Amino acid sequence: AALDGFQIDVQLNIMSFLSPQDLCHLGSTSCYWRAAVQDPLLWRYFLLRDLPFWTSVDWKSLPDVEIFNKAFSEVSDSALYDYMAVYKKSCPQSRRSLKSSRPRYGAVTSFLQSLITQAEPRFAMFGPGLEELDDSLVQKMMTCPEILLVAGLPQRQIHGIGSGVSFQFNNNQKFNILTLYSTTSVERRRARAEQAVAVNKMFYQENSIVGNQRAVHYSVIAQVKKVCEVVDGFIYVANAEAHKKHDRQEELARILAMIDPALGPPNRPLLVLSCISHIGVKRIPCVYMAHQLQLNLLRQPWMVQDTVAATLAGLLNGIEWLLEEANCKNAQ
Q1: 11 vs 292: CA distance, rounded Å
Q2: 45, 86, 27, 8: CA torsion to nearest 10
Q3: Are 269 and 231 in contact (CB under 8 A)?
Q4: Total H helices, total E strands in the chain
Q5: How many CB atoms lie within 10 A of CB 329?
Q6: Quick one: which of 280, 270, 272, 271 has its CA closest to 311?
Q7: Would you state the torsion angle of the CA atoms of residues 8, 11, 17, 21, taken in this order, to the nearest 10 degrees?
Q8: Sign of the CA dihedral 127, 128, 129, 131?
């Protein structure tokens, strides 16, 4: 009642100090406040303020880049974006609560699946974050059983590419990761010592002319092609360290080469681990990473998950999403 006596601009200023959750609670107190808390300027402020701190975003929740670029006066149809709806759709907490509110058939499904012998889902892991960071994500995954348990080290490789390692998620489901490096370990160490960029041997480049511009297109080499044909999904480890230079257009071209529908089912999920070496390194927010990589152009399910190589923070959240998507695909 004390807020009712203030002018609307003062009310908006006060509400800007509330959390979105508190704002929704305020809106439940009266018809006036239900309308007041939906002010688009207020929710645009919340969106731009909180978005850099979100730790994940997916193909269903990525905010349209136009929302950030357009001023209010430029929005089509003389109407403002429903920033409140955009915030609720994109916020990781809202996505988690929506997920937990769905009917819980998971226990029954897991029991039924346990009665059937199934092959471990296999994922191809690749990307510059595997090779450019000061801390090794793969080495940490192999040596942290309290976070991710190594369930097996197969004695074979698929056509000599990568190392297939079986892991166990939450002491339950097993899955296999085939790690694909762009060069040999010797070449990677030399490139790091010389601060040079090693030649990526997983792809070969094909150029074409589109209009008056040259378009860069990549294809995978024969050995990598064999891997892409048998996996159930992909893990792309992106270098999210803000102080380093990144060619995201070239990264997108290589992602497209790996997930080429000609190499397998077009709906295989893609998990992007937006990775930094250790806590304290300034990172590129996951929403910005999704836009830089132009993941909105992809047609299969994807998610970007903030990850820290030194602690594996965020990794299990990404793996959980990937396994759920792969299981849904296999159940179809």
Answers
A1: 37
A2: 40
A3: no
A4: 14, 10
A5: 17
A6: 280
A7: -100
A8: positive
Cα–Cα nearest to 274, from 6, 54, 113: 54
Query: What single-letter amino acid sits at 78?
Result: S
Angle at 26 between CA 24 and CA 32, to 5 degrees: 110
According to DSSP, the residues that pair with 58 across neighbouring strands are 303
Which token pair is 203?
């792809």
> What's the token pair of residue 100?
């937990």
CA 269 to chain CA centroid, Å, is 11
pLDDT of residue 157: 54
- Helix, strand, coil shares, percent, the chain, to 5: 45, 20, 35
Place of tokens 């390692």: 165
Amino acid at 27: G
Instruction: Report strand pairing: 173-179 vs 164-169.
Output: antiparallel
Question: At 158, phi and psi to the nearest 5?
Answer: -85, 105
The edge-to-edge listing of strands for the beta sheet with 270-276 is: 56-58, 302-308, 270-276, 233-239, 122-126, 173-179, 164-169, 149-152
Over the range 91-117, which residues count as b (16 or more CB within 10 Å of their CB) and which as e? Answer: bbeebeeeeeeeeeeeeeeeeeeeeee
Which pLDDT band holds residue 102 (cuts at 50, 70, 90)? very low
Residue 1 and residue 119: Cα distance in Å, rounded? Answer: 62
pLDDT digits (tens, 9 = 90+) for 234-269: 999 999 999 988 999 999 999 999 999 999 999 999
Distance separating alpha carbons of residues 119 and 175, to the nearest angstrom: 9
